[in-house]
Amino acid sequence: MTTSIDRMRAAWRFFLNGWRDWDQTASFVPSSRFLVDALVEGAELGRARSVVELGTGTGTVTEKLLEAMRPDARLFGFEIDGPLLEATARRLPDPRLVAIHGSAADIGTHLAAAGQDGPVDAIISCLGMSLLPPELRDAILDSAARVLAPGGVFVQYGYLHAHVLVYSTTRGFSQFHLGRTLGRYFEEQRRQIVVPNLPPAEVLVCRGSLRRDISAAA
Asked: Which pTM was predicted?
């Protein structure tokens, strides 16, 4: 019963956040199971020991990541909304989940504080890249690329309509091309279209970090 209440409260808070800060949330509802499945599959969790999720939100993706992860792996879940993160941690009391309340703009610092020594094998981003301020988006992607292990994957989704038109409450109407943006940070991309999601989305699985720290690669 408590789990159901936490889930409903988290979903309601997520919905309200969409109204209060559209540029940060970029959606009113959590991702569909079709999009979640594409994200989890792209992360190649069968061989990953250290996994990062950017934007745990209501825990929809977090739960599926934990189900697919190795027993000896750890999931570092980043979320800037404290109450949402607390609700997810309560609902998913898995010892492999390390909840991190903070910005994804400096992933390395947060990981080090959480006891992660060295690069990570997979990063799954549920952040609304098309609506983030450009300087914050660049800081997050640079941070992610620097902590990714050689051979690791970075998985990001975006909505297809952003290629045509996206609306920001602070910057107005614009276009955003996710593939070109990620291409500044990663050498390779594999793209999957998820039509059943509302709205239709694309998932990009990226490899070959162009910004990896020399210390992290060691």
From this structure: 0.84
